[in-house]
Design brief:
single chain; 279 residues; 434 Repressor (Amino-terminal Domain); Endonuclease, Chain A; 2 domains; globular
């Protein structure tokens, strides 16, 4: 008989998630191979989730809901996954991410670091591991963050992806993250994604000076009903704003920034010069 690892569901929300998967699986007299086949995952992946060694994803949670007939119920795994994410993500961000997954247009302005939707996983890992090193998050939370980022990025290549407008301050390109190899791969990724038909990538150069209309990072989402919401973060939490009286001025400032920023062709040329070591 195979060794069955004893679970400790009280040790963490991730462990509780895995223990619940095992409990429901065993209630149906399924082994891990049976559940893996229903989920289109490997039995090794199922085992890692059940024992808390691998964090669940939104995709896996939704497939678990189908397998256990819990879709759109109060006990759904997707709801539990959302709550689990609140422990590793900034307060307010899970609400934004859910809206982002339904948006038809996404507008981003970022300073200092490459926006998450455009990051390579190596770049994202450097940022996550830095947070671990300073004690801001745990290693498990770092893995959850990077896994979640990969899921958000997958939305950009779905059958009907959203339009993505990205305006980056030049500091996003100039700030070294993770060394030359990580940065070169990240810059190459930006050149690649700039060619995508649903992406408009622009750099707001330092030369804009006081003409840069946004001074803080901001995300704007246009939904299918053409309503617009804005998301911004402080050091402690994020806030999703749906009030048109406060959102529309931000949208106007974003459009003004786009007009002043470099074109996509000029942006790509700047990135290529940087990759070659040209000032």
């Amino acid at each position: 008989m195979a060794n069955i690892k004893e679970l400790q569901p009280d040790s963490s929300p991730q462990a509780a998630f895995g223990a619940r998967v095992r409990r429901l699986r065993e209630a149906r007299s399924w082994n891990q191979e049976d559940l893996a086949a229903a989920l289109d995952y490997s039995s090794q992946h199922v085992s890692a989730v059940e024992t808390g060694r691998k964090p669940p994803t939104r995709r896996l949670s939704r497939q678990l809901d189908v397998a256990f007939d819990l879709t759109d119920t109060a006990d759904s795994f997707e709801r539990e996954w959302t709550e689990l994410r609140r422990g590793s993500l900034l307060e307010g961000f899970p609400e934004y991410a859910e809206a982002e997954s339904r948006a038809v247009e996404i507008r981003v302005f970022e300073t200092g670091v490459v926006p998450g939707l455009l990051q390579t996983l190596e770049y994202a890992w450097v940022l996550a591991n830095s947070a671990v090193a300073r004690g801001a998050i745990t290693e498990a939370q770092a893995e959850e963050r990077v896994t979640f980022l990969a899921e958000r990025q997958a939305a950009l290549v779905r059958d009907r992806p959203p339009m993505l407008f990205v305006a980056m301050d030049e500091s996003c390109l100039r700030r070294p993250i993770g060394g030359s190899a990580v940065m070169d791969a990240q810059l190459a990724r930006l050149v690649e994604i700039a060619a995508a038909p649903n992406v408009l990538l622009q750099v707001a150069p330092f030369a804009l000076g006081e003409r840069r209309t946004l001074n803080l990072p901001v995300n704007l989402l246009t939904m299918s009903d053409r309503s617009v919401m804005a998301y911004a973060e402080s050091q402690a939490q994020g806030h999703l704003d749906r009030e048109s009286s406060s959102v529309l001025p931000i949208l106007t400032a974003y459009h003004q920034l786009q007009r002043a920023a470099l074109s996509t062709a000029e942006t790509v040329a700047m990135i290529e010069h940087m990759r070659k070591g040209t000032p």
